Amino acid sequence: MNIINIIKQRKYLSRIFLLVMSSILISICIFSIIINRKMESNLLRKEFDNNSKVLSQMEYNIDMMNKTISNLCLSIYSSADVVTMMYGKNNDIGDLALYINRLNSSILNVNDNIHSIYVYNNYEKVYYSTLNNLVIDDIELNNTINIYGKIPPRLKPIPRKSPFVTGSSKDNSSVFSFFYYDALDGNKHMDGALVMNIKSGWIYNNIKIINTIGGKSKGEVLILDDRENFIDFGGKDGLSANQEFRQELMVEYKTNKGSHKDKGYYFSTIGKKTYLVTYLMIENINWVLLNVQGYDEVYQDIHELRNYMYVIALIFLIIAVVISATISGGIYRPVGRLIKKYGFRDPHETGPVKARDEISFLNAVYMDFNNQLEEYKKEKSMSRDILKKYFLKRLLTDSTSLTEDETAAGRKEHGISLELESRLAVCIIKIDEKSGTKSKLEEKEKEIINFAIANIACESISKKYANEQVDMNTDYTTIIISVRDEDNDYFESMQEYAKEIQEHIFLHFSVSISTVFSEMTDNVKYLSRAYNEAVNLLQYRFILGHNSIIAPAAMEKNKHNPKFTYSTESEIKFINEIKTGNLKVAEQYLSVLLKEISELSYNNIILSLIQLTNKIQKAIEEINHTRLVPVHIDMKSISVNIGEMGNMADFRESILNTLKSVILQTKNGENEKHKILVDAIKEIVNSNYQDAGLCSQQIASLLKLSSFHIRDVFRSHTGMSISEYLNEVRLEKAVEWFNNSTAGIGDVMRKVGMENESYFYKLFKKKFGTTPKQYILSKSIKGI
C-alpha cells in the first residue's frame, strides 16, 4: 500500500521518466530508420550507376555497329555493281553472279559478322543474294517489310529470322537487317534497295559476356526493339528464355518507365519474386536495354547489416533505461523540493490543497497566488477604453474560453452596447488597393480612411442593429453586430448598408472598399468562429474584384469545391497555343482556365495560379531551346507577386501582356533562324555537288542537326526536297559543262557527282525534255 501511495505522489516523476525514455527510444528508432534508408539509397544509387555503365557500354557497342554498317551500306549502295543490280532490266545471269562474287570477296569474306547482302530490283521484283541461291525468296524479310507498311526504316537494325542455306538443309538464324533505299515508286514501295543482314552474334556475344561477369548479382541484360518486342537470340537458359516472364516484364516496363525518361530504374514484382530493373533507351534506333536483377541478391548485405542494427538497438534500449532514470531524477529534484516546502496532500486526504499530482498541486498554489495578484490589479484598475478594447478582442479571438458569467460581467463593466444573448455576426471592411506602387496609399492616408470607414459604418449599421467597432490592429475595419431574434432580413439589410458605406467612402476619398459579413451565431462562444469565417471570406476579393460585397452563401461552392486545381486538358491546349504563337486562341483558353480556377477554394486558387505561371515559364524555356535569340520574360516576379495583385483581372492582364511579348519575339526570330539554315544547306550543296555520296544525312551530320528537321525546314522554305535541289544543281552544272567544254557524257557525270547513267538520263530528260546525247548533238548542229 505504501508503494502505491508513493507512486501516486510521484506521478510527475513517472511522466518525466516515460518522456525521457520515449524521447531516447524515438531518437534511436529515427536514427536507425535514417541509417537504414540511407544505406539502401546509397546501395541503390551505386547499383544504378554500375548498371548504367554496363548498359552504356552496350549502347556504345550497338551504336558502333549501327554506324559501321550504315557507313558500309552507303559505300556499297553507290557502287556500280549494286546500282546495276538494283535498277537494271533483264540483267545477265553471268554478270549478276560476277557482281555477287565481288560482294562476297570484298565484304563478306573480310567481315565475319555480316550474314548476307540482298539487292532488291524493283523492276524485276526480286532479291539478289550473296547466299548460295542468286535469287532468294526470303519470307521472313517480306513479313518484316509488311510490318512497316512496305516502307522499312532506313539504316536502322531490324531483328528478324533469315533462311540460311547449308548444303541441302535449312536453318532459321537471327539477324539484324539494315535497309537503305533512295526513293519510293508510285505504289509507295522501295524503288530499289540494299539489305545488309548482320549476324545477331555481334550483339549477343556482348550480352553473354555481361550476363556472365559478376554472377547473379549483376543480373541479366535483355533488349527491346523499336516495336517493343524482346529480341530473341535463341538462348535456352536464363530469364530471356522465359516467355511468361518476358510478357510480365514488358507490362511492368510500360507502367513504370515514365513519359520523358531516357534511363532510370524501378522495382518490379513478377511471379513471387521482386526484381530491380534498370533501363536505358538508345534514341537513334528506339531500342531499350534492360538489366534485370533479383531484389534479394542486390540487398543481401543490407539484410545482414540490419540484423546487427537490431542487436545494437536492444543494447541501447537497456542503456536508455539507466540514462532515463538518472535524467528524470535530476529534473524532478527542484519539483520535489517545492513539494516538501508546501506540504503535498493526496486528493483523498483532507488538507489545505487537494491535487491529483505534483504539477496540479503547484498549479493550485500558483492559482491561489495569481488570484491574489488579480485582486490587487483590479484595485488599481486600468482605463475603461483599454479594458473595453481588450474585452472585445477576446470576444473575437478567444470567445470559447469566456464563461457566461465573464461575458455578462464584461458587458456590464465596459458598457458594451451589444446584446450578447442574441444572435451575433461579424462585418469586415477593407480598402481596395490596385496593384502597382503608384496606386498604393500611404500608411497615414490608410489610417485616416479606416477611421472614417469605422465611423460611417457604425453609424449606418446602427440604424437597425446594435454594433461595436473593434480595433484588431489590422489594415481592415472589424465590427461586431447583434441581431435580434425577430429580425429575419439581416443579409438583405447588410447588403443595403454595405452599398451605402461604399458610396460615402468613394464620394469623400475616391477609393473603393470591399465588405464581408459572416453568418449569424446563436451563442457568443462561437463569435471567434464567425470572425475567422469573415477573415477567410475577405480573401475571395481576389475573385470578385474591387467594390465587392461578400456574403457566406456566395462563396459556399468555392469553399467546398473538392477540386484542387484546373483541368490538365485545358492547360495542355493553352500551353500548345503559346508554343504555336496563336495569341487569340491562347487568350480563349486562358479565360477557360481562370474560370475553372475562380471556382476553387482560395488556397487552391493561389496554388493554381502559381502552377499556371510556372507552366508558362517552362513553355517559354522550351521555346528558347529552338531560338537563336532567347525570349527574356521574368515570370518569377509574376509568381511571387500573385498575392499582392488586386484581383484575378490584374493577373489575367499581366499574363496576356507577357504572352504578347513572347509570341512577338518568337515570330520575329523563327523565320530568321530557318532562312539561315536553308542558306547553309544550299551553300553545302553548291560547294560539294561533285561528291557522289552527298545526301541529306551527310548534310545533317555536318550541321549537327536531325536529317528529318533539315528536310522539313528546307521543303517548307523552298518547296522542294534537298535531294531534288541537289539534282537541280547537278543538272545545271552538267549543262554548263556541255555548253563550255567538249567533255563526254561519262566525264561530265563524274564531275557533277552522278554515277548511275540511266538515272542521269532520266533526270536530264525530265528537266530539259531531251537526252544528254540529243542535247550535245543539237548544240553541235547549232555551232555548225
Provide the helix percentage: 55-70%
Secondary structure class reads alpha+beta
- Average pLDDT works out at 80
Rg calculated over all Cα atoms: 43 Å
Number of strands: 15
Q: What gross morphology would you assign? A: elongated
Distance between the termini: 142 Å
pLDDT under 50 segments (min length 5)?
Answer: 165-171, 346-352
The major pleated sheet works out as: 6 strands, antiparallel
Strands side by side in the biggest sheet: 3-2-1-6-5-4
SS strand fraction:
5-15%
Helix segment count? 28
Brief descriptors of the model:
single chain, 784 residues, 5-stranded mixed beta sheet, elongated
Which helices and strands occur, and which strands form pairs?
Layout: H1 2-9, H2 11-77, H3 80-87, H4 93-106, E1 114-121, E2 126-129, E3 135-136, H5 139-147, E4 158-166, E5 169-180, E6 193-199, H6 201-212, E7 220-224, H7 243-256, E8 263-270, E9 273-282, E10 287-294, H8 295-298, H9 300-342, H10 358-380, H11 384-397, H12 404-414, E11 423-431, H13 443-461, E12 466-470, E13 476-483, H14 490-509, E14 513-517, H15 527-538, H16 541-544, E15 549-550, H17 556-559, H18 568-580, H19 583-597, H20 602-625, H21 635-640, H22 648-688, H23 696-703, H24 707-718, H25 722-740, H26 745-751, H27 757-768, H28 772-783
Parallel strand pairs: 14-15
Antiparallel strand pairs: 1-2, 1-6, 2-3, 4-5, 5-6, 7-10, 8-9, 9-10, 11-13, 11-14, 12-13
Helix pairs in contact: 2-6, 2-9, 9-10, 11-15, 13-14, 18-19, 18-20, 19-22, 22-24, 22-25
